[in-house]
């Protein structure tokens, strides 16, 4: 679904207001008649003219229609689609100020939710801010009024609609410059109305496109997709049903893989993955994060390490190069299977992998009963509070926690400090998603 530019709207009154803060989602915060108003496109310290979008009981949502007094940290967005496309929310804020805002979110969550404060703050991790996104999902919509197919992210103000974009500066450059071509490709297909989405995943050498189609494809459509892949160097996959239905169309056996070099030389590992597998979105930041995690974990030759929410072995296998034994635990069977295959492919024999739902009580399992010297956690947004009900054991001296949600990290930090007797030694942010309000962070806890 996409909006027509000519769609009529009832006139809405515009209001002038001062922006007192920046919310955790990147919107400015004003207070009008004692009520919080979240203003898209506004920055802290600015005075803006705004238009209310939605009214709620305790807060309102608005958009800035004119900046009357700009923040000194305001910059011109690189992307012409910024403000319409919902893929980015902070391109109008300079890079240094983005990091400061994310650090403030993390510190606020520690103080407000966990009631803890790190003994020291780690310098923020940053990498290339453009072309970093190697994995994602593009929405597809045939729009009769525009006479073409739109491919892109959802609109910021109206997530029901697909943003009308021609390129994307944050997506892997092999694909970001070809968004409009993708729309033209889908528009030429017999099944144009039946392509629901296109997922993309980039390894070091191959970029894969997964076409989710709701009806069987004609021979002509399959030929067109193959020709597009050959012309632009993409591996083409089809997804006619659920995740298990994904299969390559061209070439016959594409290979997706990326290398990690935490210490260089003999410590290098290479991870193969499938296009819908979870991998860290930002390849450059993943390498920096790996180096930071290894530094904080300080793995020693005699250590036994437990890696929870291990996925493909992103942390497990580099750790295995340095320790006596490591065990990775993950809830998705396919990821665990591929983690084991990656271990064998890299000649790693001291890493074991287990399938377990870490949001259920696993204290009776063999791996949970064993003493581990060190623990690494990389949970999803929900955090790891269920695991922390029975881990870590008294033998665990150090924990490194990689987080994609500062609120759950702060809650779990409070558990580790107040219930398990750990000290929050250090924490810091990692700019995994530049130009967005997403806060990725890392923390180390010690006895």
UniProtKB/TrEMBL annotation:
Keyword flag Repeat: no
Leading EC class: transferase
Residues binding [4Fe-4S] cluster, per UniProt: 79, 85, 88, 168
Domain of life: Bacteria
Domain TRAM: 7-66
A GO molecular-function annotation: methyltransferase activity
Active site per UniProt: 404 (nucleophile), 404
Keywords noted in UniProt: 4Fe-4S, Iron, Iron-sulfur, Metal-binding, Methyltransferase, rRNA processing, S-adenosyl-L-methionine, Transferase
Pfam family, one: tRNA_U5-meth_tr
PROSITE patterns: SAM_MT_RNA_M5U, TRAM, TRMA_1, TRMA_2
UniProt similarity note: Belongs to the class I-like SAM-binding methyltransferase superfamily. RNA M5U methyltransferase family. RlmD subfamily.
Protein name: 23S rRNA (uracil(1939)-C(5))-methyltransferase RlmD
Organism: Rhodanobacter hydrolyticus
Gene: rlmD
